[in-house]
Amino acid sequence: FVTDLAFIMIIGAIVTLAFFKIKQPLIIGYLFAGMLLGPLSPLWSWILPPGSHPSDMLEGVGILTDMSALNLFSEIGVILLLFVIGIEFPYAKIKSIGRMAIGIGSIGLFATLGAVFYAATALGMNSMDSLFIAAALSISSTAVIAKILEEMGRIKRESTILVLGILIVEDVIAVILISSLQSIALVGTVSIESILIVVIVATGLIVGTFTVGTKIIPPLIDRVAASEHHEILLLSVLGVCFGYALLANIVGLSVAIGAFLAGVLVAESKSSEVSKLLASPIKDMFVAIFFISVGALMDVSQLQNYIWVAIVLIAVAIGVKFGGNLLGNFLFSQKRDKALRAALTLAAPRGEFSIVIIKTGVDIGAVSSFLFPLVGIISIITTFLSPFMIKVSDKVVPILEKKNV
Questions:
Q1: What's the pLDDT tens digit per position in 274-305?
Q2: Angle between helices 272-297 and 142-151 (to 10 degrees)
């Protein structure tokens, strides 16, 4: 693993520096570095002896040899990323968008799910393949969006708190979708009980955080901070972060939800800025591993087999997600500039939950195996598109504001 880490950091530094020089988002550099390093990279077909297949390298041939360890470390990256993002948003900000986030997020997600299902069916996929790919492409990537917004300096914008609220709602719905899809594939019916349990548990965790948690955790952090010992404060806030992620995981929710809520609790303390500064360098390292490992696992060698199907599904998913979120924003009487920024930010990226949903279907034998490389290709392309869509909002919003004047 030390060898893998050395290559990740060296190649990652060189590639991301190159992308920084050409003024491209670092997240794209991370993904590109992962594609160069990964065992599924077409690069290996030039180096390995004839007859070797790229999939054989997942067992340990190639530069990156321990993909299971990388997956573990990449999950730590997601937890730390959402934790640090959560520190930017104290309870008062979160409370202000609760009802809107649920309404807008649900409209955008289910509109996309329906549209992609019909598009996939029209492309010749069977009903189960269509259902799983539709569910996968209806969920925007929390990790990708949070990283891009942070990297582009958009994290404190008014629209960002709404975007993050919608992402948390989508993560909860994603957990419900995974449970429902497994039930449909194995039993043929949707378990209403399992859906109710997830909703009740998620509500209980969020309400408990904002009632009991805000009275207990922030004072404890301030007491630790009063010692003026940064190492102890860092260990304490990381304990809150991973403790909450563990709690969310135990009750059947996403670790990202738990980490974000932990960040919100730390944001309520008087030492939130110091906590953020201490945790950020660790977060940056693990986030880099996360995005490089995502790039490494993408089987781009199969791009030519699925590129046209991917392009059609991407166009439908982005178009409907944008339209659904924009409609939701207008129904909830949001300002035009805020609505447009939020809709464009949420439209493109698909990532961690998309891959998890398809992997679940493949593991239980409910869907065709080709969906896994397909969703990988879609995740890479949409992640590349995301920064440019956010930049589009920066150009379109001022034009609309001038017209209103």
A1: 998 999 898 888 888 887 877 777 666 666 77
A2: 120
